[in-house]
Amino acid sequence: MKGRVYLVGAGPGDPELLTLKALRVLRTADAVLYDDLVAPEILKFVPSTAQLHGVGKRCGEKKIQQEEINFLMIALADSGLQVVRLKSGDPMIFGRAGEEIEALRKAGVPYEIVPGVTSALGAAAAAEIPLTHRRMSSAVVFITAHQASGSDAANWAKLAGSGATLVIYMPGRDHAGITANLKNAPLSPDTPCAIVSRGTTKQQKVFRTTVGALADAPQLPSPTLLVVGEVVRLSDAAISSLASSDADNVFFSSLVTDSHPQPTSTVQEPVA
Description:
Elements: E1 4-9, H1 20-27, E2 31-34, H2 40-43, E3 51-54, E4 57-58, E5 61-62, H3 66-78, E6 82-87, H4 97-107, E7 111-114, H5 119-126, E8 140-144, H6 156-161, E9 165-169, H7 176-184, E10 192-197, E11 205-210, E12 224-228, E13 250-252
Parallel strand pairs: 1-6, 1-7, 2-3, 2-6, 8-9
Antiparallel strand pairs: 4-5, 9-12, 10-11, 10-12, 11-13
Helix pairs in contact: 3-4
């Protein structure tokens, strides 16, 4: 009798953002194939008797090919196990779920998708950046800075010209290329943007700057997201404008706490 595969979103990092359904599936799993960015605290929900397979990659360094992941999922399900393919964020957004669904369908393996809080939504909420605002942006675009070989490059001019908030996944540590794409779009150099590092976790840091100064932004620990658009001006009430001399290139820590983070000229240690 065949088992079943669950494609599960683990959320952006904070274990408390895991959905109830994802928690239930994890607690009854026979095998879990997890990505490197899944929080270790979430893996503690997996039964001690279950198989754990780390199949992710970090900073572009591949440990296992996608075809191997597909084969392992199918083999485990064919042996009658309940298999959880656990991905950070949401499996349907830059999570290669489409490729895995194709493989499962072809093999005749039953599956179910359990959505999660995608990294863009979690990081923006933790950094207090509203991705839409009725006076600033009525749309939001999720885009990745890394394209598969042979795929068409993103139309930056079209995306930036729409006036939508841009959330760029996997921006990398060299921001010069993204800066050039945004300037050529063209976006004004004064357009605000924010780099969110390790969003929703206790290690979260946010660096707020402008498109014009983005190339000089510091290297923050991965994973990171880049938010570009006028809504970034609303990320902290204590900073009224990026145009002011003391508001440029400001670091501030931002955690989901009862108090608002206070801006500082240096990196703040997150509040426990």
